[in-house]
Amino acid sequence: MDSLTHIALGACIGELFFEKGFGKKAMIWGALAQSIPDIDFITSLWMNTPESLLAHRGFTHSLVFAVIIIPVLTLLANQIHKPHNITFLKWVLFFTISVLLHLYIDAFNNYGIGWFEPFSHHRFSFNIIYVADPFFSVPLLITFISLVISNKYQLKRKKWVIIGMSISFIYLGYCVVNKNLADQRFRSQTMKQHIHYNNYFTTPAPLQNWLWYAVAATDSGYEIGYFSLLDKQNKINFHFIQANHQLYKEVYDHESLQKLIRFSKGFYFIQQRNDSLIFNDLRFGQILGWRYPNNDFVFHYNLEHDVNNKLIIQKGRMMNWNRDEFRFYVKRVMGF
Fold first, then answer.
1. pLDDT tens, 135-182?
2. 46 with 75, same domain?
3. If you compute the radius of gyration of the chain from its CA atoms, what whole number of angstroms results?
4. Is this structure's pTM higher than 0.85?
5. One domain, residues 151 and 194
6. For residues 3 and 9, what is the distance between their CA atoms, to the nearest angstrom?
7. Number of domain units in the chain
């Protein structure tokens, strides 16, 4: 999830976990515990783009890191707030819940998370919710703001937290239901359209959970399509993208290629553009792909030149959005 959501969620856990009066201090510790796995963002200061992509949600999002950081936070908080009547076990439980919940929730979107780093490079991704979904985040953010501006002895503080967190996690449960419906729709449509695939995934398009993006990997390429769970017809309009395996052989020894392939979890293709070879990660869809199926992919990387690659990857998610495109997007989500 995005950083603001983690901060708000951590603060809510802190308020819920400790007695009134200590709540605002606990909010700070909760926000810190929820945010600290994302310290891996600093790797972008010295790593190139492929290395930084793998470092993010790598070791600092692993169970090994959790085992290291939870005792550190516990000892630090216990020492800073002496004298107090909080048991050491309560500190441990609080930080364990806060850190592990971050690692769990981050696996719900399609970026992937390395729970078992450094022993295994496998990335877990449930593809259930978009990395920034206001329907999940806003109730937590409203609750967080209410806690910040209210008196720390306000009797209703915990009630606000319970309501805010309940709304968000009920929505997350609803997203799980939508994921199952999306997978069912995908399997039904590929069968009807006689699309034979080796692997596939479905994942929500930006900022909501009704419009979904699907990719089916075949022997020669990929069938790609967008569909809304609110569509009046169940049909998915797929379009085919050639895998271009022959281009892969030309750049096999490229220093960044193997890292990018690992990051993409095998869902990628290479294309020739003018004199350059472009690596495309299919997992994040095309820029405005629900309207323009031939647009560039959000995560694309120039294998010939490293100039501006980072800029392209970071900004690709929301590139070319404007008022007209947003209106069209809302209509497409609604099934029109």
1. 999 999 999 999 998 877 777 888 999 999 999 999 999 999 999 999
2. yes
3. 22
4. yes
5. no
6. 10
7. 2
